Amino acid sequence: MKKITSKISFFALTLGFFLFAFQSNVIAKDIRKETVAVSGNCEMCRDRIVTAATVTGVKHVDWSPKTKLMTIKYDNDIITLDEIEKRIAKVGHDTPLHKADDKVYEELDDCCKYDRKE
Fold this sequence. Notes:
The chain is of the alpha+beta class and 118 residues long. It is 43% helix and 18% strand.
C-alpha cells in the first residue's frame, strides 16, 4: 500500500509540474515584433544599442549598422517599445520617439557620431 501511495504522490507532483509549466506558456502574452530606425554607425553602436535594449521582457534584439534598423521581439505586458526607445536614447542614440541628450551624444566616440536630424 505504501508503494502505491508513493507512486500516486509522485505521479500527482509530476502532473502538477507539467500543468504549471504548460499553463505559464499558455497564458496570453502580448509578444510583439517591431522594426525601428535607430541612429548609429558602427559595431560599437550596435553593441551599445543591443545592450540598452536587452532588458526583462525582451526576447530578441538586433541592430544593423548597414540598414540602421533595430528588430526587436518583446513582451508588451512587461515592457513597451516606448520604454525600450527611452533606454536607447539614454545611451546616445536617437529613435523615432526619443532624441538622445546632446551631452550624451557628444560623449560618443567619433566613429559613433551620426548625422543628427533637427
